[in-house]
Write a structure and sequence with these properties.
elongated, 8 helices, 451 residues, 25 strands, alpha/beta, four-stranded antiparallel sheet
Length: 451
């Protein structure tokens, strides 16, 4: 995971004098805490020169610094510029200085591969004229122009924060990126985010970011919360102990069932294939298959059936039986059967991982038995479209009909109870259906309804 931020207006408040912009201490602490976590990197991508960014931010060595909108990744960048670029740079700074002399309060900031023309302290009535004069004066240098918050950036090197973020992602091998920024130049970074990435805009104004916070103080709180949640997740804070998980196996595939009845791990069609369900290591976004009573009652008992790998999970009024069907030697498929008998209303959430490469075929129904007979209604679900990588891979079949238990040696039958709380999924689309039972007269000899 990569957590990257802009500097001015994000980690540090906007001030009239750019040389006085100091970062909020709590943001520094949170960035350091994130950088010290395993498989987690942090970075600051700024329009400032790398030298100024390092001097002002005083970020620890664990935080990657990128200056000049992605032009500077390493100290000494300016020495690699061609003679022509350095000549244009001298001309650009000199001409902007002439414009600044005509507009009191304006200021020119020289950078290794460009310059910034600040108009924050220029009289409000003259700001637009000052900006237009600076752009017209810099036109002969062919510098790229970017508009920021009361500043105009001129760059002689073709780059932006989007390219910088992509370069960092590739260099660090990040699977997910959180980027926080406040300026128009940060929109280039928002534009390259995809998949599980998250974008956060600071302050008002139009944006393509998915989320928004008010100010740099809110950024500090957000980073602290991300650091806490990331630390808890990396240490397995909410994961059940490994010895409390139950194993389903059929000689070809392996699945894990949590103490509360969730199917939380399954790779198919082989144990080394991409995961279909992996909530035990990646949370709900990694995929899960959840069965739970609507009233939130807890599991009473969980045990294997005899000497088989068939697992029963029991609540008051409900029994869930899980089996991995014996593999078909002629087909590369994995078949999972989850049979639910219940006299209480149950919720089923089927949410395979959105990034799973294996296509899924799911057959199921909800059946309610009553004195008048049996009524069966199909249960519809949706699943994120599988990517093109899934082409040529055999589908996984998830039938609703009951399959015979697998007669294989299994761990000794065990019984246990759990106090784990059950929470609903919030982060990814799921297929959810429920069945409300009808009352069965006492002494009728009928079994409870099946959902």
């Amino acid at each position: 995971m990569l957590v990257a931020c802009d500097y001015d207006g994000t980690l540090a408040p906007i001030v009239d004098n750019p040389g006085h912009a100091r970062p909020i201490r709590e943001s520094i602490v949170a960035m350091r805490a994130l950088a010290e976590l395993h498989a987690t990197d942090t970075a600051v991508i700024s329009g400032r020169s790398l030298r100024d960014l390092a001097a002002l931010s005083r970020m620890p060595d664990e935080v990657h610094l990128v200056g000049s909108h992605g032009s500077e990744f390493d100290v000494g960048f300016e020495s690699d510029l061609s003679h022509e670029v350095r000549s244009h740079l001298a001309t650009l700074v000199a001409t902007l200085a002439i414009v600044a002399a005509d507009f009191p309060g304006s200021m020119v900031e020289s950078k290794p591969a460009g310059a910034a023309f600040h108009v924050r302290r220029v009289d409000a009535a003259d700001r637009d004229r000052a900006v237009q004069a600076a752009i017209a004066t810099a036109a002969p240098t062919s510098a790229r122009v970017r508009h920021g918050k009361r500043v105009v950036e001129f760059s002689l090197v073709e780059t932006d924060k989007g390219h910088a973020l992509e370069a960092l992602r590739d260099r660090l091998g990040a699977d997910a990126v959180l980027f926080i920024g406040d300026d128009q130049t940060d929109e280039d970074a928002f534009a390259v985010l995809r998949g599980p990435d998250v974008s956060v805009k600071v302050g008002c104004g139009e944006t393509t970011a998915a989320f928004r916070v008010d100010d740099p103080e809110s950024v500090a709180h957000l980073l602290a919360r991300v650091a806490d949640r990331r630390s808890a997740w990396m240490s397995g804070g909410n994961a059940p102990p490994l010895e409390d998980l139950s194993v389903l196996a059929n000689g070809s595939a392996i699945a894990l069932v949590s103490p509360n009845g969730d199917l939380c791990w399954l790779c198919a069609p082989r144990p080394d294939s991409p995961s279909v369900f992996a909530s035990i290591v990646g949370g709900d976004t990694a995929g899960y298959w959840r069965v739970e009573p609507l009233d939130g009652r807890r599991v009473n008992d969980q045990r294997y059936v005899g000497d088989t790998m068939t697992l029963e999970t029991r609540w008051n009024g409900a029994v869930l039986t899980d089996t991995l069907v014996a593999p078909d030697p002629h087909r590369s498929t994995t078949r999972v059967v989850r049979r639910l008998l219940a006299t209480t209303s149950m919720r089923v959430e089927f949410a395979p991982a959105a990034t799973s490469a294996a296509p899924i075929r799911c057959g199921r129904s909800a059946t309610t038995r009553s004195r008048r007979g049996v009524v069966t209604s199909p249960c519809r679900s949706t699943r994120p479209a599988s990517s093109g990588r899934s082409r040529g891979i055999k589908p996984i079949q998830l039938p609703s009909r009951r399959s015979p238990p697998i007669r294989r040696p299994a761990p000794r039958a065990r019984s246990r109870s759990t106090s784990s709380s059950i929470t609903a999924a919030k982060s990814i689309p799921t297929a959810t259906w429920s069945a409300a039972p009808r009352a069965t007269p006492t002494g009728s000899g009928r079994r409870g309804p099946t959902a």
